[in-house]
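Technical note accompanying the year-one report. For the benefit of new consortium partners, we illustrate the data format agreed upon in the data management plan: each record pairs a sequence with a structure-token string. No post-processing was applied to the example shown here.
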Amino acid sequence: MACAGVASRMANAADQAASSAGDSPAALLAEVRKSFTVHGKPIPPEIFRDFGDGDLADSGPIWVTVDLLAATGSNLYYDAITGQNGSYDQKKAGTSGEETGYLYIGSTENGLLVVVANWSGGGSGDFITLHILDLAAAQGFDNDGKPYQRINLTNIRSIALGDRWNGQVSIAKNTIHIATERNGPGDRSESPPSTIEATRP
């Protein structure tokens, strides 16, 4: 039954998060900020699809926060992850050709995270989005009512860079520099660098 499958995924995610409750929240936050990993495992690229990169019909994201402890290694994000050193890809199992990837740029001086993600639904389009994210430790209750640790990643801003965009993104203190080399499949021209201030709402 579909409901049974959903319940199983929820229970597995809660169990995994509960097993990590003994880890220091400060250490977990530091690891994510340094390498964008949890316990040495890459954060699933498909979270960016769910942050709105794969939803081209709506004007803004609907899902904005994910518990990284629950998401990493979960059944929900079971598709194989390939890559290394902050650049990872995840291809949907089956014949759809859907693929999500990201490059972790780093952390700003005020602790926000910067990621450039790409999503393709299987066609020729490869949609590139810059994400500014916040990170926080929190607690929740498991199925037995016992508290467990969460590491919440919240998408506070998404900037669409375009279909098949190519360029460089860097961080200087709290300023994000975007140097566009190619705007899209029909544009070979180089654009002036753009800057964005990474701030919390």
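Partners are asked to follow this layout when depositing records. The helical segments are 2-19, 25-35, 46-53, 68-71.
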